[in-house]
Amino acid sequence: MIRIKAEKGAVMPRYATEGAAGADISAFLDAPVTLRPGEYKAIPTGLYMEIPVGYEVQVRPRSGLALKHGITVLNAPGTIDSDYRGEVRVILINHSDVPFVVSNGDRIAQIVVQATPRLDFVSAEDLSGTERGEGGFGSTGV
Fold first, then answer.
1. Could you state, in order of their start, the residue ranges of all structural domains in the chain?
2. What one-character DSSP code corresponds to residue 61?
3. Whole-angstrom Cα distance, residue 26 to residue 72?
């Protein structure tokens, strides 16, 4: 369970379907915000969360906004840590070549709850070998 304090008029997160992994979150604005091409802004949601220790909430783009309008979450996935109590804001960027207007109540992103186990980081002289080794950046697709 995640406890949420919401500003009056803010929209609570909602799963759009039974099988949805992410819950939609919405803009909480006094007036519309225009994102010019290439511009990014932190959009308020009016939501404050109490996330249990051992979990994070990831903020991810909505595929429809990305495909239809070129709007995405700049730092995707954004992380909301369990000890953060400030307002959830979503950093949106306009990758299109036309202005995009965000209005109050618009669904702007989705959130996914993720467990975050903590492991110890220890110094090592060598690492175990694997078939992949040091190959990266598309090396397994060659």
1. 3-118
2. -
3. 14
> Helix or strand or coil: residue 140?
helix
According to the 3-state scheme, what is the secondary structure of 106-135? Answer: CEEEEEEEEECCCCCCCCCCCCCCCCCCCC
For residue 10, what is the DSSP state?
P
Interval 62-106: pLDDT, tens: 999 999 999 999 999 999 999 999 999 999 999 999 999 999 999
Specify the CATH number of the domain 3-118: 2.70.40.10
- Count other Cβ atoms within 10 Å, centred on residue 49: 20
Take residue 118 and report the two structure tokens written for it: 């903590």
- Longest C-alpha distance within the chain, in Å? 57
- 50 pLDDT above the threshold of 70: yes
- Please report, as a single letter, which amino acid is at residue 40: Y
pLDDT computed for residue 140 by the predictor:
73
Type of residue at 137: F
Burial (CB < 10 A; 0-12, 13-18, 19+), residue 82, is middle
The pTM assigned to this predicted structure is 0.89
Which of 68, 49, 36, 61 lies closest to 6 in space, CA to CA? 49
